[in-house]
Structure to design on (318 residues):
């Protein structure tokens, strides 16, 4: 959960998740929709699916006992070199190095490494250093956590608190006053603007039409309201017209768009998205469950794992 996500955001999700899936076996036995429901809102849903797959493997291959062998940990879905090192050192106190966002900044400063941290040669030096500083017997977990903590609390990207840093006497970056240049600032991220529109197609008795996102889609395995890219409209075409045309072409169903309910902004990977949300109705003779759409009442939507914007829309409905 903590990959790419801050601790403060994770804490309530972690507690809810652990109450629901207290053991590896509980998680392995759960169906994916339930796992995604308890993850919904944390983003990067691939992590939840991989953790679920890893739990199944731990049960099938290791009798439900999480392995402590590095290669066995690394072979589990969703676990890379950093996570394997974190698990092995924190949970088993075995010597495994960690290079992550915070520690790589300290290590680069302690080694006075110039250049981009993503550079393969620099990464190799950082991993070698992270390995060299670990005690050979016990204490690797504490050592790794201490460096992570100094990185997040003291050796900050901007204006690090060098005077209270326990490492300042051995830090060449502090000595030369080059904290602003080490590590080298990342190149600015280039975002792409995009306009999308979601349809809240309502039926007084059946509820709202939703769809399960396909494996290759942005929110694979989660449910969402029908949604279309309307960034490129034809000359004179309105968003409503584009939506109705795209919906007809995709589902072979006509809709009547009633009103703009709301708009919201959100970001996904490199996209900065403006999402317009329209209330709409379907022609009475249509059978949406034949074309990948399903009706769900407002109460039923509360128990579905919805995409992050789907959840925001559901909150607006309630
Ligand atoms: S002395 Fe400053 S730059 Fe060096 S490790 Fe400590 S906080 Fe980071």
């Amino acid at each position: 959960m903590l990959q790419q996500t801050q601790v403060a955001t994770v804490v309530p999700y972690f507690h809810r998740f652990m109450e629901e899936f207290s053991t590896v076996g509980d998680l392995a036995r759960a169906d994916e929709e339930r796992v995604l429901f308890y993850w919904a809102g944390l983003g990067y849903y691939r992590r939840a699916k991989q953790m679920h797959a890893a739990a199944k493997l731990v049960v099938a291959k290791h009798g439900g006992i999480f392995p402590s062998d590095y290669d066995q940990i690394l072979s589990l879905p969703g676990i890379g070199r950093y996570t394997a090192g974190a698990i092995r050192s924190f949970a088993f106190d075995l010597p495994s190095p960690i290079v992550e966002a915070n520690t790589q900044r300290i290590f680069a400063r302690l080694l006075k490494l110039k250049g981009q941290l993503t550079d393969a040669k620099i990464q190799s030096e950082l991993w070698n250093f992270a390995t060299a500083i670990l005690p050979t017997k016990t204490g690797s977990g504490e050592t790794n956590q201490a460096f992570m903590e100094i990185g997040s609390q003291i050796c900050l990207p901007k204006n690090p608190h060098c005077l209270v840093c326990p490492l300042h006497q051995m830090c060449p970056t502090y000595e030369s006053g080059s904290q602003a240049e080490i590590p080298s600032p990342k190149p600015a991220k280039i975002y792409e603007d995009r306009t999308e529109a979601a349809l809240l197609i309502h039926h007084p008795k059946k509820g709202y039409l939703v769809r399960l996102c396909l494996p290759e889609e942005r929110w694979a395995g989660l449910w969402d309201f029908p949604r279309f890219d309307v960034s490129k409209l034809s000359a004179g075409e309105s968003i409503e017209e584009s939506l109705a045309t795209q919906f007809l072409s995709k589902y072979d169903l006509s809709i009547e768009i009633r009103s703009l309910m709301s708009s919201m902004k959100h970001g996904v990977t490199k996209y900065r998205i403006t999402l317009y949300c329209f209330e709409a109705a379907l022609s009475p003779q249509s059978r949406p469950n034949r074309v990948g759409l399903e009706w769900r009442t407002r109460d039923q939507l509360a128990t579905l794992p919805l995409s992050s914007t789907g959840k925001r829309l559901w909150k607006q409905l309630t």
